[in-house]
Write a structure and sequence with these properties.
Family: Belongs to the HMG-CoA reductase family.
Keywords: NADP, Oxidoreductase
Number of strands: 10
Shape: globular
Number of helices: 13
CATH architecture of the largest domain: Alpha-Beta Complex
Number of domains: 3
Distance between the termini: 40 Å
GO biological process, one term: isoprenoid biosynthetic process
Structural class: alpha+beta
Organism: Alteromonas hispanica
Order of helices and strands: HEEHEEHHEEHEHEHHHHEEHHH
Largest sheet: 10 strands, mixed
GO molecular function: hydroxymethylglutaryl-CoA reductase (NADPH) activity
Amino acid sequence: MPKIPRSSTQDYSAAMSEQRRDFIETQTKASLSNVGHFSISPESLAGNIENFTGVAQVPIGFAGPMLVNGETAEGEFYVPMATTEGTLVASYSRGMRLTREAGGITTTVIDDAMQRAPMFAFADAREALAFGKWVIQHFDTIKQASEETTKVGQLRDIEQHAVSKLRWLRFNFTCGDAAGQNMVSRATKAGCDWILENYPGKVEHFVLAANMDTDKKHSHLNSLHTRGKRVVAEITLPKQLMTDIMHCPPEALFKQRQYSNMGAFMAGSVNNGAHFANGITAMFIACGQDVANVAESSAGFTYAEILPNGDYYFSVTIPSLIVATYGGGTGLATQHECLEVLGCTGKGKVNKFAEIVAATVLCGELSLGSAVVADEWVSSHEKLGRNR
């Protein structure tokens, strides 16, 4: 089988990407003429992709403006959304209009942690328990060894989870503006190297990861303990404004919320909302995030109340929103431009971006929920969402 062309010295170049397109076209008889049209520099892609051949172009639309009253995200934002789903941008824009006229969305990052969870095996449960106590006693030294590998990562704490003679140590780090998965892997390994060199007992087996960090898959542990950013977006909507813009009063939307809660409960869902993943995925693609993290980031909770004066309080909580404004794909040309539109480039902007994502999710939840109640869901898709 012929191998895909590579170069040991010039692999990230226009010439090599063209050579690979020619190779694929020869092997498959398919045309890559559109894949080969792009504005980004191939030389900028080292560390982001291998065998660079071209681009998958996803349309970007802007929703908004959206008014946010956050701790770090303050003001009006035009939100870039990369999607091929018709009605999506229009729906989010409708929710943004409602929340803007209601005075804006309050956003708060309430927790921050990125994990790696190594596993240690022992002769029996008693030895595993003794090891756990030893780790607690030596936390400061383990922290020092871990943090020697990173300029910005800080070890917050180490959770312990045990079963039989096995013990998982869930290292919790803050990671500055980076998402941090690679950062915490390197730091956790350094901490574990110190543990293995200095623990006076016998560790029968060690592995750096054994699925308790739940990387790129959701878990109830993440919902309870946070992975990435834990963000709340909330708003109180005047009753008349909801009726005028969304064509449904708070009472009708609240009743639908109870039905949706029960449906999610019966289905065993990790989210009692409508479609967190839509807004998150569209923003992740536009802004250079690791899209596989949608598996964790799209889990969440919606909560609503009808207040004594008839107004509607509504909130979304995203317990494991994994985002970055530094590293990964955030520095690539088009992705960087989208982050610039949001004012989320430069140091110390990751919480601002997280708040904007959460506020966007809230707008999408209100818009879709209202469309279902007002019986406008199908008709809007018929009008905007069918590519004929």
